[in-house]
Design goal:
The chain has 5 helices and 9 strands. With about 190 residues, the protein is α/β, with parallel strands linked by helices. The N and C termini lie far apart (about 30 Å).
Length: about 190
């Protein structure tokens, strides 16, 4: 891990509506606990200084979830993961913010460590599988905040578009995802997927 990314904050994105799953994915049982607990542990073991939880107002469990520095709310409702990323960056007291979606149960601290090693002051890191970024297990620099806020204000919610612009501006190092790493990004969207 580089000195620049040695101190980083993190946000666990759990504010999605889980429509296809038909229940809150964060509360799915996994490895003897709940999925949100497993993902918090990934961020904690990766070395996050503080972990925020991006959750909706109606997710009453979020206020009682131990370990989080605070619960953050999307500034605009129904804006997808961009809202949680912006909320996390707004609270971030470090130079970098690790982002992890609650529905990536194969993600490891080792992947985040790999990304953190690619970070530098003012530059984060994201994986790309072919032509698609994997924005929900990435490390963003605080300097991404104005670009992300502007996209949110325009309701341009595509993370692919945002990250393409961020990489072009030198805000992100892009790491190609190896075939052996692809399973890390398998997400739970439907009951059969778990």
């Amino acid at each position: 891990m580089t000195a620049s990314a040695a101190s980083f904050d993190a946000v666990l994105l759990a504010a999605g509506h889980s429509i296809r799953m038909r229940r809150d994915k964060a509360l799915l049982p996994h490895e003897g606990g709940l999925l949100w607990q497993r993902q918090f542990d990934v961020l904690d073991r990766a070395g996050a200084k503080q972990v925020f939880l991006s959750a909706r107002e109606d997710q009453t469990w979020a206020g009682e979830a131990p370990g989080f520095a605070r619960v953050v709310r999307d500034a605009s409702p129904d804006c997808g993961p961009l809202g949680g990323i912006v909320a996390g960056l707004e609270q971030c007291g470090s130079g970098h913010l690790a982002v992890l979606a609650v529905d990536l149960p194969q993600m490891t601290p080792a992947w985040l460590a790999t990304l953190l090693a690619d970070c530098a002051p003012g530059r984060g890191a994201v994986g790309r599988n072919g032509k698609w970024f994997e924005p929900l297990a990435a490390v963003y620099p605080r300097e991404l905040l104005p670009l992300a806020q502007a996209a949110l204000a325009r309701r341009e919610l595509s993370l692919q578009k945002l990250l393409t612009a961020a990489a072009a501006q030198g805000l992100l190092h892009v790491r190609e995802i190896a075939a052996a790493e692809v399973p890390l990004f398998t997400n739970w969207n439907e009951p059969a997927a778990k």
